[in-house]
């Protein structure tokens, strides 16, 4: 358990950079921090992370169980974190279009706690863009 990383995340969540962050994203960060090695900051698999039948579960499944999020909900939380500059997934490759690859057949997603940004500039949401378009006139 990395209490110092949990404390780091808890302190960061009180900063303006974390303003407006959904509870699910905050919880994902806390669980990654709690399960990470304090030196490498990589999320660790624990021996107790097994199904009832004794088979090993992935770190992604661990996050789903601990957060209560489904596959889609966790995916959306990870994407929102990445949009804030907090990519907790460990990139293993890039695809032919240059996009990051985090998992592939035989290699599950690994997670780490990256350095937390001092400030965050988010792209405008579709709702915000439509509001700003309303005041503009067309020529």
Question: Which short descriptors sum up this protein?
Answer:
139 residues, mainly alpha, two-stranded antiparallel sheet, 5 helices, 2 strands, 3% strand, globular, disordered C terminus
Helix and strand topology:
Elements: H1 3-12, H2 23-34, H3 59-67, H4 71-83, E1 93-94, E2 100-101, H5 126-134
Antiparallel strand pairs: 1-2
Helix pairs in contact: 1-2
How large, in whole angstroms, is the Cα Rg? 18 Å
Helix run count: 5
What strand order characterises the main sheet?
A: 1-2
User: How many β strands by DSSP?
Assistant: 2
Secondary-structure-based class equals mainly alpha
Low-pLDDT segments: 131-139
Cα shape: globular
Series of H and E elements: HHHHEEH
Strand residue content: under 5%
Distance between the termini: 61 Å
Q: For the report, how would you describe the main beta sheet? A: 2 strands, antiparallel
Work out the helicity level: 25-40%
Mean pLDDT across the residues is: 85
Description of the structure:
With 139 residues, this protein is mostly helical. The protein has 5 helices and 2 strands, in the order H-H-H-H-E-E-H. Strands 1-2 form a two-stranded antiparallel ribbon. Strand 1 and strand 2 (100-101) form a beta hairpin.
Quick synopsis:
The protein has 139 residues and is an all-alpha fold. The protein has five helices and two strands. The model is unreliable at 131-139 (pLDDT under 50).
